[in-house]
Amino acid sequence: MNAYQALEHQRKLLFVTLWLVITLSLVIGSINVVSFQANTIASFNFTSAVLGLVILLYFKRTQNLNVASWSVILAVIFNLFMFIFIAKGQAYSLIWFTVLAPLSFFLLGKTAASWVSAIAFVLALIYVGFSLPNSNPHPLKVGALLNVAEVFVVLWFLFRYYERARQDAYQALEKVSITDRLTGLHNRGRLEDLLDYHLQLAKRDSSPLSIVLADIDYFKNVNDEFGHLEGDRVLKQAAKDLRSGIRETDIIGRWGGEEFLLVCPDTASTGAATLAEKLRDQVAKRVQTLDGKSVTLSFGVVTAHPNDTPTQLISRADKALYQAKERGRNLVITN
Question: In Å, how far are 113, 159, 230 from 119, measured between CA atoms?
Answer without folding.
Answer: 10, 16, 59
